[in-house]
Amino acid sequence: xxxxDLREEIDQAERLYRAWGKRIRGHDRFSxxxxxxxxxxxxxxKSMEQLGVVAECTACAQEGLGSCCFKGVEGWYDRGLxxxxxxxxxxxxxxxxVPGHCLFVxxxxxxxxxxxxxxxxxxCPRLKTRLGRSKxxxxxxxxxxxxxxxxxxxMALSQWLKTLGNTPY
Length: 169
Known about the structure:
Blueprint: H1 4-26, H2 28-50, H3 53-63, H4 79-87, E1 105-106, E2 109-110, H5 117-121, H6 125-163
Antiparallel strand pairs: 1-2
């Protein structure tokens, strides 16, 4: 079950997408910003793979030690980020696949294209120990670029929608 607040955020993101999605996706500026964001997301994923973050997180989840993808994290997502997720062609789940965990996590990790800052930046103590300071610094630089690209896209969309008399954020 998801909270009424999150359900409302998802509903508002879906309404925005239905009303403006085609126009936004066809707009050169937003298309460029989404491509830049998508590339940054891919670079973060590559970095996570190369540095062993993916393997470590997978092992942690399989060992049942706990998870940063805990139930309730989904409540941090707002309609702005949810709208971007839809614009990038990703479906937003409405039912948990993994009981007791984040709504957006599946058997193979996060189901979303764009993710909340916590989901990108969080490194548990175990992971910090395994990575060491230099790899953490390397990863956070790449992740920071992803976060910046997402923020730029969200701000541009927000400003554009305000000029049209819409204030979805």
